[in-house]
């Protein structure tokens, strides 16, 4: 009996994870399609982490391809996970930021505000991007220079 219960719990968890990814990919499509930008869900990389401390995993989406990358890096989209009435009205994920020219891993570090900061690599070295209440800077150039080691959770560690 307990084996059946465990199997049912694991199946429900897998369905929730699959549904979450499907909902996120729908949100990416809603974001990219009006801009007429091509993206491929099979090469889209996703990292889940709670950026705003609300107990729900938000998503960082690393996009590749000609419409999303240039000589200085690619684009990372940040999506906030919603629930309740907001999710019913806007969908499960809301685009919170588009960060272009990201050329390496993204490290999530403690911030000064409600949202955690992101440290990204750029041509000018690592930059700390802070959420301003509405979004993150659109590129590493809008961030603060980082000197010294960074302590946090590194996402997309292989630089893509």
Kindly summarize this structure in a few lines.
This protein has helices at 2-32, 84-90, and strands at 45-49, 58-63, 74-81, 93-102, 106-109, 117-120, 127-129, 144-145, 153-155. It is built from two helices and nine strands, in the order H-E-E-E-H-E-E-E-E-E-E.
Sketch the major β-sheet: 5 strands, antiparallel
Instruction: Characterize the overall form.
Output: globular
What order do the helices and strands follow? HEEEHEEEEEE
Question: pLDDT below 50 for ≥5 consecutive residues: which ranges?
Answer: 1-15
**Count of structural domains:** 1
Mean pLDDT: 85
Which oligomeric form is depicted?
single chain
The helix content, as a percent range, equals 10-25%
Q: Total helix count?
A: 2
Quote the beta fraction. Answer: 25-35%
Q: What is Rg?
A: 17 Å
N→C terminal distance: 44 Å
Trace the largest sheet across and list its strands. 8-7-6-5-9
Q: Structural class given helices, strands, pairing?
A: alpha+beta
Write down how many β-strands occur, each being a DSSP E stretch of 2 or more residues: 9
Protein name: VCBS repeat-containing protein
């Amino acid at each position: 009996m307990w084996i059946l219960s465990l199997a049912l719990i694991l199946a429900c968890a897998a369905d929730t994870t699959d549904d979450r990814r499907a909902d996120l990919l729908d949100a990416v499509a809603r974001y990219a399609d009006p801009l007429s930008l091509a993206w491929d869900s099979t090469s889209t990389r996703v990292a889940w982490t709670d950026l705003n401390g609300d107990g729900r995993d938000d998503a960082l989406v690393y996009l590749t391809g000609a419409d999303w990358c240039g000589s200085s890096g690619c684009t990372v989209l940040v999506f906030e996970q919603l629930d309740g009435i907001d999710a019913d009205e806007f969908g499960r994920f809301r685009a919170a930021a588009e960060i272009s020219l990201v050329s390496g891993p993204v490290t999530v570090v403690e911030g000064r505000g409600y949202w955690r900061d992101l440290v990204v690599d750029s041509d000018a070295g690592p930059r700390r991007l802070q959420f301003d209440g509405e979004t993150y800077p659109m590129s590493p150039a809008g961030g603060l220079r980082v000197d010294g080691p960074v302590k946090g959770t590194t996402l997309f560690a292989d630089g893509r």
